[in-house]
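Entry for magnesium ion complex. Fields follow.
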Amino acid sequence: KIVNVILSGGVGSRLWPLSRKSRPKQYLPIFEEQSLFEKTVIRNSKVCNQVMVVGGVDNYQLSREILNKEESSNYLELVEAAPRNTAAAIAFAAFSLPEDAIMLVTPSDHLIGDQDVYDTSINQAIEMAKKGSLVTFGLIPTKPETGFGYIEHEGNDVLGFREKPGLIQAQSYLKQGNFLWNSGMFCFEAGTYLSELEKHEPEVFKTSKVALENAKDGFLPLDLSMEIPSISVDYAVMEKSDKIKVVPSSFSWSDMGSFEALFDYYPEGSKEKVDGNLVLGSGKHVEFVGLEDVVLVETKDAILVLNRSNAQDVKKVYERLEKEN
Ligand code: GDD
Ligand code: MG
């Protein structure tokens, strides 16, 4: 049994105001009229025989709509009362599956190309997962991005995993040459993940187990969820486990996490690119004078203007607005 566990709990705060709590970025039909969520489901449907979505109360309806459309009515869903980060989200899925089920854990918000290359990497990972490894997918880094995890490797062996290093660290990783970006997708047996989680983060293990045991029809209870420490799988398990392996991969991959990623995604000459600037969501005629590398985003009730190099700071705007409301 191979299950595609889709993590869909993030709000995509760095893409505000396109991305909203009520419609996070993975559900926006911004790429060839398909949402990133839908693309994820389709991409993995060849290799996986089941889909399990772990999402939040604010958006599970949006996942359902898409899954019903994809006629993969054979899906499971877990609905979080509050986001408790990815270590717990993956644990909920693992606790719900047989120990030897293979989990292909994927984000719901990435853009991936080269399906054949992708399939080959996944199949390789599945074989390694069957032998008890926690498998990551590594991509060749092209810049010292600080928003990613870095995998130091020798072939499939992992020498070290470092989540979101500082800039100087990231620069030295690029220079050393034997580091890959962590794609954010993982493959392992449910039992392997749970025993590594128990070993390295026993508190997350215990509290997510209790929360899941008290779930009703897949809906997790809020009070017990709040007991779970919020930590990502990267810090909780990947940085610590000695069972990690990597499949060095070369499919095209973009984490559509920020406006800088979108800036890079849209080619010069597309209607979104105006004189070296990016315009999204505006139906109006836009002109730039003396400006480059600017991103302008317009929605019904908000306008955002920023320099692309400040793309990571949009999260702060989102957080401030959340607090004020
Ligand atoms: N269900 C659920 N619950 N999903 C969640 C939660 C949660 O509490 N928090 C985050 N997610 C989902 C997000 O929606 C996304 O699909 C995925 O889990 C990863 O979370 P991100 O918040 O996007 O992580 P990141 O981008 O900072 O870092 C991860 O991905 C990078 C590549 O894109 C790490 O794995 C990095 O190491 C990696 O390089
Ligand atoms: Mg991400």
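NOTE: The first strand starts at residue 2 and ends at 8.
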